Structure formats: structure tokens, C-alpha cells
Amino acid sequence: MDFPDTSPMDTINPTGGHKTLGGKWLTVLDLSSHTLVTGLDVWSWAMETVREKNFTSGLTGIDTPLADARQTSAGVFMEDDMEISPSLILNIGGRIDYIKTKSDALYNWLIPPSSAIIPTLMRDAQSNSDLSWDAHAGLT
Questions:
Q1: How far is the C-alpha of 103 from the C-alpha of 94, rounded, in Å?
Q2: CB count, 10 Å around CB of 61?
Q3: Phi-psi group of 123: left, alpha or beta (phi > 0 → left; psi -120 to 50 → alpha; rest → beta)
Q4: Under a CB-based contact definition with an 8 Å cutoff, are residues 89 and 81 in contact?
Q5: Contact, 110 vs 119, CB < 8 A?
Q6: Are 35 and 81 a contacting pair, CB within 8 Å?
Q7: What span, in angstroms and rounded, lies between the C-alpha atoms of 81 and 50?
Q8: In this predicted structure, what is the pLDDT of residue 36?
Q9: Higher pLDDT among residues 6 and 91, named by residue
Q10: CB neighbours of 60 closer than 8 A, spacing ≥ 6?
């Protein structure tokens, strides 16, 4: 970033890390006039950010533009292709998902540029979870 000469800021150096880990298990069973597919998928994502702010006065402070956050999702699913006739297949299926999100508390400074500045809470930590489902049917 370029700052005007009158700015108290010299440089801002943001960094962020995103980590995702996941896996999927899938089973396909061919049962003559039925093809059954079942499975499970799970993944987790985490994000951490920091920002170093260097002031023209020579002071340096560290903050974060976003609170550290995590999200986890787990889902199970099943689908059945049923051969009704040689040219007609009925497909039915469903899925259930559980999702959990968590965000740490957010402060205006992690390390203030001066010991006279006391970090202030900007937003409390938050956590949410939800369960959802989906069903479908179709003809091919």
C-alpha cells in the first residue's frame, strides 16, 4: 500500500493461513436391478490472519483483520438407481449434513504499538451449528 506523506502509517504487512483437511468414503453396490451408493464426507477448514502495522513514528503493532475461525462439516448420503424397465431408471436419494462454525473473539490489537494502549474487545467469540437434510427423486 502507498500511504500519503501525511499518514501516520508507513507499511502494513498482512498474512493469512488457511488449512483444509477432509475425507470421503464411498461404497457402490450393484444389486441386479438396483445400484446403491452410500457414503460419508467430512472436512474441516481453519483460518488465521495477522497484520503487522509499522508507523512512521517507528512504533509497530500487530492486529488481525478477522478473528481466527473454523468450520467443520460432516454428511452422510445414500442414493438408489432402480431399473424400472430397460429404458427407464428411477433415482431416489437423500443426504444429512451437520455443520459447525466457530470464531474466536476479535480485539482491535493483538500486540498494541504502545504499552499505553489496552486491547479492546471488538466482537465476542461466536459458535453456531446446524443440521440439514435433502431428499430427491428423478427419472432417467
A1: 30
A2: 18
A3: beta
A4: yes
A5: yes
A6: yes
A7: 50
A8: 96
A9: 91
A10: 52, 53, 54, 113
How many Å separate Cα 46 from the centre of its chain? 6
Q: Is the pLDDT of residue 1 over 80?
A: no
- DSSP letter string, 64-116: -SS--EEEEEEEEEEEEEEEEETTEEEEEEEEEEEEEEEE--EES-SB-SSTT
**Cell 449434513 appears where?**
97
pLDDT in tens, 67-126: 999 999 999 999 999 999 989 999 999 999 999 999 999 999 999 999 999 999 999 999
Give the whole-angstrom CA distance, residue 133 versus residue 1: 45
Question: With the CA atoms of 107, 108, 110 and 115 taken in that order, what torsion angle do they form, in degrees rounded to the nearest 10?
Answer: -120
| H or E element at residue 19 | strand 9-31
Measured distance CA(128)–CA(42) in Å, rounded? 17
Angle at 63 between CA 61 and CA 65, to 5 degrees: 145
Total-model pTM: 0.76
Calpha distance 111→42 (Å, rounded) = 36
Query: Given this model, what pLDDT does residue 11 score?
Result: 92
